[in-house]
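Contributing new records

If you add data, match the layout below exactly. Sequence lines come first and carry their own label; structure lines follow with theirs. Keep one chain per record. Anything else will be rejected by the validation script.
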Amino acid sequence: MKTIRLKVNVVTQKIRVSCPYRVSEYDLIEFISSKKNWIEKQLSREVAPAVIPEKKRYEDGEKIFFQGKEFELRINTEASKTSVFIQNEYLILSSKKKLKREKREKAILDFYRSHLKEEIPKLIAKWEPIMNVSVAEFGVKRMKTRWGTCNIGARRIWLNLSLAEKSPDLLEYVVVHEMVHLLERLHNNRFKAFMTQFLPNWKELEDQLNGKID
């Protein structure tokens, strides 16, 4: 080996350094210290199973999830305008005429986004005084591999649009998870201690969110 190699395992939170025999312990420590910011950035990355939404057709009779419950999609083409709402066990998509699949999808995703933008501020307001942190901004967007992210410097959190399909307690878990990053950047023991302090059942919620339990 001719150079020093540094690897970070995000899952195990372990760092591995390989180097030539000629490298002194002092030089090795200096090298690792110079990579401190990069190492912390890698360790702060969230690892979760892919959360790519299942490809839906958004056709009449299809099963649609909202707030952890399953609804049957009913399409109405005799309305004065496009709207989406819940009625009993149905999720109703109304429009003036039959919409193409892309527009049906957009209408339902807009419904999801509006719901999350109404609920997330309530959760943030609930947890800010409890955690003694302040969230400057939040947003909702589609994400393929994460349920949420936190920009610590900007105090901004982003939540996955697919959380509208999950139960309210799972949405709250993700909001709390991202807000805890304002107290601890890494997923270390201190982070886990905060999670246990605020949400004692957080590990069960995490497993449920990632499909490990029903």
